[in-house]
Design a protein that fits this description.
This protein has 419 residues and is α+β, with helices and mostly antiparallel strands. The chain contains eight helices and 13 strands. The strands form four sheets. The chain has a six-stranded mixed β-barrel. β8 and β9 form a beta hairpin. α3 (296-305) packs across α4 (310-324) and α4 (310-324) runs antiparallel to α5 (331-342). It is globular, with a radius of gyration of 18 Å. Residues 29-51, 59-68 have a biased composition (Low complexity). The active site is at 143 (nucleophile). Belongs to the glycosyl hydrolase 45 (cellulase K) family.
């Protein structure tokens, strides 16, 4: 079995209200074929693509958790999360975060095979989801801001707080009060650590982090995503078709008011910065180099070359990655871009099935957040009736007056806010 392999617990997320003082900034991506309703997303407030950013070839460097970075980068388009304000998409907070269990950003060691970044930890894939799995879709973002779950006020003391890094990708350790880079970028502000980039565990399984709807006690929860082979806005999107049959496990570290039910805004380098952009400062690049504000590198390449010319689009994204991530300490970002292009197939808002699962240790080691001590029971997808108290705890601002509701995801907060 895979070290720290997830145990299927069943169920989609259920919502819990946010602290009223949270400043949220969303960072989602927009689909090139759909209208962007909120600053985050493709369609009505959803964060769609997170194009990729990439950086030159980075010789696979492995992290302390055994994962490796690869060469080149993958692209993700779309959403960005911001550290203090909320603009459609995923939100990252201006608070500070701790470097979790990983220090700094880039890691060393590791290798890539066949253009796909692979992890140093091998093992079996998790068991498939059951018939009661929820319907959802994935988008992407990377705005370099501090995550919502990087502030102690947003996490239970028992589970820990997501770490942050300075502009040079050096960990802030347990100093969680460092202001977010999106509240004013400077060398010592709190940025997203490069170690948060997604990576492949095998040819069919990847790990990463994501922003989820801003309607619950989401910090540190993990979800198993199984891609269906269809695009959310364009069913025959070539990347989404190619991605079908693969599985990803993501840990929720951020939220988005315009992230709708069942949407996972996957943290992907070059995925688009959205309303808040600390990446131009941190990486020393122009806004144009980052691609479309909502959609990032993939959206720019798709607009230039056409969605049907998929191999050319993938090459375009990798070239743009190489233009951005060309510094020695950007290996993990470059590998994240390559992962997006190769393992993730540069998929544009792919549909998926999902359920909440136990978190793999590799994700816990990077984020520093472990919900295990809570010994909680996870509600199933569609989980039966919701009490008045549970519904009253839901913060419905994410719905944008109902525009972002989407399909019923079975959660108490969807019932309370959209039912």
């Amino acid at each position: 079995m895979l070290l720290g392999a997830p145990v299927l617990l069943g169920g989609c997320w259920t919502g819990v209200s946010l602290d009223s003082g949270d400043e949220l900034a969303t960072a989602s991506t927009i689909d090139t074929t759909a209208d962007s309703d909120s600053s985050a997303g493709d369609e009505a407030g959803s964060t769609d693509e997170a194009g990729s950013t990439g950086g030159g070839s980075s010789e696979g460097e492995s992290t302390s958790t055994g994962r490796s970075t690869g060469e080149g980068g993958s692209t993700t388009d779309g959403g960005s999360t911001d550290g203090g304000s909320t603009d459609g998409g995923t939100t990252t907070e201006g608070g500070s975060t701790e470097g979790g269990s990983t220090e700094g950003g880039s890691t060393e060691g590791g290798s890539t095979e066949g253009g796909t970044t692979t992890s140093g930890t091998g093992g079996d894939d998790p068991p498939p989801l059951g018939n009661d799995a929820c319907d959802g879709y994935a988008t992407r973002y990377w705005d370099c801001c501090k995550a919502h779950c990087g502030n102690t006020g947003n996490t239970d003391p028992l589970i820990g707080t997501v770490g942050s890094c300075d502009a040079a990708d050096q960990s802030h350790g347990q100093d969680y009060d460092v202001p977010s880079s999106c509240n004013g970028p400077n060398q010592n502000a709190a940025f997203t650590c490069y170690s948060n980039a997604p990576w492949a565990v095998s040819g069919s399984l990847s790990y990463g982090f994501a922003a989820v709807p801003a309607n619950g006690d989401i910090c540190g929860r993990c979800y198993q995503l199984e891609f269906t082979g269809e695009g959310h806005y364009q069913a025959d999107n070539p990347g989404s078709v190619a991605l079908g049959g693969k599985t990803m496990i993501v840990q929720a570290t951020n939220i988005g008011y315009d992230v709708s039910g069942g949407q996972f805004d996957i943290l992907t380098p070059g995925g688009g910065v959205g309303a808040f952009n600390a990446c131009s400062y941190q990486w020393g690049v122009s806004n144009n180099q980052l691609g479309q504000t909502y959609g990032g590198l993939l959206s720019t390449c798709t607009q230039q070359l056409g969605a049907d010319n998929h191999q050319a689009v993938k090459s375009c994204v990798l070239d743009r990655c190489n233009d951005i991530f060309d510094e020695p300490n950007m290996g993990e970002l470059a590998a994240g871009c390559e992962w997006f292009v190769n393992w993730y197939e540069a998929a544009d808002n792919p549909n998926l099935k999902y359920e909440e699962v136990e978190c793999p240790q590799a994700l816990i080691d990077i984020s520093g957040v472990d919900r295990g001590p809570l010994n909680e029971t996870i509600q199933g997808c569609g989980g039966g009736s919701c009490s008045e108290e549970e519904q009253a705890a839901c913060d419905c601002s994410w719905t944008n007056g109902g525009a972002n509701c989407g399909a019923d995801d079975g959660s108490c907060c969807w019932e309370a806010c959209c039912g």
